[in-house]
Amino acid sequence: MIDPLHSLAFSIQANPSIYALLLGSGVSRSARIPTGWEITLDLVRKLAEVSDESTIADPILWYREKYGKEPDYSELLDALAKTPSERQQLLRSYLEPSEEERAEGIKAPTAAHRAIASLAAKGYVRVIITTNFDRLMETALVDAGIVSTVLSSLDQIHGAMPLIHTRCCLFKVHGDYLDTRIRNTHTELESYPSEFNILLDRILDEFGLITCGWSAEWDPALRNAIERSASRRFSYFWALRGEPSISAMRLIEHRRAQTIPIADADNFFSELNRLVDALDQFSRPHPLSTGAAVVSLKSYLADPIHRIRLADLISGEVDRVRETTAGAMFAVQGGPDPDSQTFTARVHAYEAACGTLIAMAAAGGYWIERWHYATWMNALARLATRRNENGTIYWLDLQVYPACLLFYTLGIGSIEAGEHGLMFLGEMFRTPIHREHRKDIVAVEQLPAFCLFDEGSRPARLLEGMDRRQTPLNDWLHNLLTPQFRGIIPSDSRFSYAFDKLEILAALSYSHHVKDSLAFGHWTPPGRYVFRYEDRTRIIESIRDSLSTHKNNSPYVKSSIFGQTFDECIVELDKFIEWISTLKGRRL
């Protein structure tokens, strides 16, 4: 069965501005904003305090016995603060943050408000109905670059533009906290002015509805508006934390609403925003199809006269990858901790964003020429530079995955290209990678699969089907890239050999470049080759044979992949063989 959240995301992305939101106090709850009733109770307690009766157990009972009626928000404000300015100052202590609260992020827009504002900024949400009288939603919208049309009183509705002409309309059916006409008592919530009802009826007839944070228990007038609406033009979704109230269940049945179980409003709207962003990215027509891009690339590779066209083509595709992977779907902060589903989904999203570039790189690596080097190395360096340094560690590390994909694809193509491909590998492995607030490194220190994450192979075991693998990301990349080379490499077994050779040369290069920092003995990135004895033996023997036969004229020496002389290369090769022997039976 399709997840209802996924169904909602598809509906929103396919039908911009069709859904209105109905937000209750649950959306502001994590900001620690008190409800109108909570403010009323606190005012009663303060009134008891100044009446020398601060030890009361039940403030409502005390007020009823003292004044012979139920406490009323407006009456209390009028009694305790005589002028509009005094009333505003009184309410600010409840709804506006103090310096200490601001420093702690209290009474500020929540992740839910921010996600809703993001959806509105992108044109997916135009109408928001809310029972809240705080200004968190307005603040979040302004921060997202939207000056919303706020309707909270009759005079505002009388002068309002038609909904179709507003970028975003915020309908505050219970009023605004700086207006003493706010509605929060039972009597005030029994009915709305006719103008409110007309606008509600129109919204509920013309829009689908997404409800979150509203129990439906204390708002008879709003319940009545939904009950008298018979429109089935668009779907009704109700996000629920726990079981619905009796009143909510009646409305859900009446509107045939699809319920969505949620942990809280913050997670719900953040994930919804992420999913809509993802669908938007993948629904956009690609300006240049993959096939056309590869054809263009091949036409530029043969002649240096096309140097600028080649650079522009590759740079433009890198720009597209960077733009795509800067979207909300690839956020590194907020949201739930990575699990198998979210981690695998994000890896797939990166791969989809890089699809055209990888197809180009497979051909580019195979047909590599010296005058191509700078263009590909620039692409690698740009993709390997992390945008953010604060956030969830797995998401931060995964920012470099597009560079890892490019590293492997170019490398495998270059391996298959033969001796002149080895010359490029030496340059590619030494590509400088900038790291903010840390020492710069070279590509071979960061981009082999085992080096991508600070925790080695552990994060990659979250990938679907890779939880028991010793080299999970290496295996994943092997399976992913095999189809990319079927038009270049004649068999899958030969592809596996090229893959292993790339990882072995990267391992040799790694130990050569970082040997001064290996304080605890020799180490180099493991790969699939650790468990592939026959191919590993053939590769090592071919390298040794080339070194022994050609000495300093061996392409392995001339490329400086793991040494600049015959002697240096032999030493590195022997250390690598010895290190491999120590891994037998060990978990990587």
Describe, in plain words, how this protein is organized in 3D.
This protein is of the alpha/beta class and 588 residues long. The chain folds into 3 domains: 4-31 and 107-266, Rossmann fold, CATH 3.40.50; 36-103, no CATH class; 285-582, no CATH class. The chain is built from 28 helices and 9 strands. The protein has a 7-stranded parallel β-sheet, sandwiched between helices. α2 (36-50) crosses α4 (73-80), α15 packs parallel to α18 and α16 runs parallel beside α19. The two termini are 38 Å apart.
Look at the structure and give the mean pLDDT: 87
Q: How big is the Rg?
A: 32 Å
Helix tally equals 28
Q: Tally of extended strands?
A: 9
pLDDT below 50 for ≥5 consecutive residues: which ranges?
A: none
Q: Shape from CA axes?
A: elongated
Q: Hey, roughly how much beta strand do the residues contain?
A: 5-15%
Oligomeric state of shown chains: single chain
Tally of discrete structural domains? 3
Class by helix and strand content? alpha/beta
Strand order of the largest sheet: 3-4-2-1-5-6-7
Summed up, what is this model?
The chain is α/β, with parallel strands linked by helices and 588 residues long.
Properties at a glance:
single chain, 588 residues, alpha/beta, Rossmann fold, seven-stranded parallel beta sheet, two-stranded antiparallel ribbon, 54% helix, 6% strand, elongated
